[in-house]
Amino acid sequence: MIVILGAGAFGTALAITLARSHAVTLWARDPQHAAEMQGTRENARRLPGVSLPENIRVCAEIETVETADAVLLAVPMQRLRALLEEHGARLAGPPLVACCKGIELTTGLGPTQIIAQILPQSPAAILTGPSFAANIAKGLPTALTLACTDDEIGRPLQSLLSTGTLRLYRTTDVIGAELGGALKNVMAIGSGVVMGAGLGESARAALMTRGFAEMCRMATALGARPDTLSGLSGFGDLVLTCTSDQSRNTRFGQSLGRNEAFDPTITVEGAATARAVCQRAAELGIDMPVSRAITALIDGELQVDQAMDMLLSRPLKEE
Ligand SMILES: NC(=O)C1=CN([C@@H]2O[C@H](COP(=O)(O)OP(=O)(O)OC[C@H]3O[C@@H](n4cnc5c(N)ncnc54)[C@H](OP(=O)(O)O)[C@@H]3O)[C@@H](O)[C@H]2O)C=CC1
Ligand SMILES: O=C(CO)COP(=O)(O)O
Question: What's the pLDDT tens digit per position in 163-208?
Fold first, then answer.
């Protein structure tokens, strides 16, 4: 049995694909939302148009999860700590698999580090990589990375969470997998700004490439393996998120580039993570000019033309 905490787009999509071979419990924090989904067999609020198979049980109470094979944590990054602090006592036992992408703004920590702080006895892993919830829910082919420092735990989790259409690759490089997923969202906002402001596809390719260099610089400084950044959780997710209008980070960036408002209820992980990245980079003494420019745009400290001037007037150097 698999328990999924968080009935957003991603939690629901994972529930749908995993329900092909497992009993799944999907937990929503709002009892009315849970009752709606249980009754209509659809998550009309977060993932409309896809039916929930009968073997997904939707609930608003976290009962004991001792018998679960794994608990998936599918809430936005900045909400993970609150979720674990509120419900941690009921989660002890099975492996906890973070399904969120980002860096916590208040601490600079990634999802598995937060799990380790709050529930140090629970094995922790992260599921990340290029995937849109709607694609997974429709059963379209998708490949993700399952990262767990303890391969004895990672191996069975890889089998447990792979389905006929969802293929998981495994790594022990949790830092690399987490940082790839976190940092690519910052670059996706930048890519959206470039396209929204009409700067062209060549500029987007430049931003993605120089952004990828920054991703690698920060991640390797923090102990990641370079090949992890070149894989699904880094390069793969960067490409998907920066080039698709399905991405909420990209759409947020497009609005920024056009000077338009963006619906604040939509999850945009890259916004808080951009600030966290700049703080962390400053502490570590790492040069991250693309991330700095994107953060200044998000915070309204720079306009697009000023950000471009800042990036283009930097001293010329070797690639
Ligand atoms: N959507 C996608 O395509 C993908 C998303 N991800 C990652 O998955 C994570 C979740 O995103 P996604 O599902 O899309 O987000 P959504 O905005 O669709 O949903 C977020 C969910 O989290 C719930 N939630 C928010 N705060 C809390 C809290 N404190 N306690 C419990 N539940 C809470 C929300 O509940 P409520 O509805 O009541 O507000 C909602 O169900 C993100 O880190 C994202 O980067 C990864 C890959 C693909
Ligand atoms: O993480 C994702 C794709 O891999 C989803 O991207 P958005 O959060 O930008 O929609």
Answer: 999 999 999 999 999 999 999 999 999 999 999 999 999 999 999 9
Q: What band does 64 get if pLDDT is binned at 50, 70 and 90?
A: confident
Look up the CATH number of the domain holding residue 134.
Answer: 3.40.50.720
With a 6 Å cutoff on the Cβ, whether 142 touches ligand 2 is no
Catalytic residue among 184, 204, 251, 292: 184
Chain position carrying tokens 């140090």: 120
Count of structural domains within the chain: 2
ipTM of the complex: 0.98
- Domain of residue 283, residue span: 182-313
| Of 107, 111, 108, the residue nearest 6 (C-alpha) | 111
- Ligand closest to 131 (CA) is 2
Residue 177 lies in a domain: no
CA of 207 to the centre of ligand 2 (A): 18
- Per-residue pLDDT of 271-290, as tens digits, reads 999 999 999 999 999 999 99
**Who's near 22: CB < 8 A, 6+ residues apart?**
1, 2, 55, 69, 160
Q: Residues with Cβ < 8 Å from 261, sequence gap 6 or more?
A: 255
Nearest CA to ligand 1 atom 8: 100
